[in-house]
Amino acid sequence: MNLQEIKDQLIGWINLKKGNEPVFQEGVAPHGGKTRAFALTSCPLVNLKFDDHKFNPRTPNQGKVHELMASISVLTLLTPLTCVFIPSDKTTNKEGTDETVFLLDGRHRFEALLELAKTDSDWEQKAKVDLKIYYGLQASDVYMLATYLNKTRKSLAKGEYYKFIAKIYDSKYDEIVRSEAVEPDEIRVFKDISSRELTSKNFDLSIGRIVGYTAFDPEQDGSWYPMVGLKQQDKIDDPKAKGKFCPITAGNMATFLRHLCSEQPYGKKDMERRSVEIGNVLTLGEYFRKIILHPVDSYEEATGTTVSCKHWPLDALGSLIESDWSSELLNEGGSGYKLLAHDDIKWERFSEILHAY
Question: pLDDT tens digits for 290-313?
Answer without folding.
Answer: 999 999 998 888 899 999 999 999
